[in-house]
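Risk register update: the risk of archive-format incompatibility is retired. Evidence:
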Amino acid sequence: MKARGVTAAKSLPGRMCTSLLGDWQQARPAQRLGYLAGLRRALGATRGHVRTQFVVESLLLALLGGAGGVVLGALATTGYATRQHWQVVVPLAGVAGGVAAALCLGAVAGLYPAMRAARLAPTDALRTA
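Archived output:
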């Protein structure tokens, strides 16, 4: 019984550090993106340039994720159909729909941060980084 208390007491600081590190790592990308937007604005980029960069980055990440998901789904479908001795059918409409859905979600998810970053004043963004 005593060993469990000692083990719990030893593991508690490790768990706390892991939790705090996770929170810190989640906060850092937002600060970094604000810094990069401020730096671009300070170097002469317009709000439209910053907004376009954020949306394009979001769309590229969504395209990569959607394509990866479609490939994994097609591989899983092929594996299952082969194991069941069925004909493998991966409809092109399903592939296109999966990638299109990922792009739509990427656009929606990237639009708000893009507008927010474009509104940042260069001096404020650089000062908070």
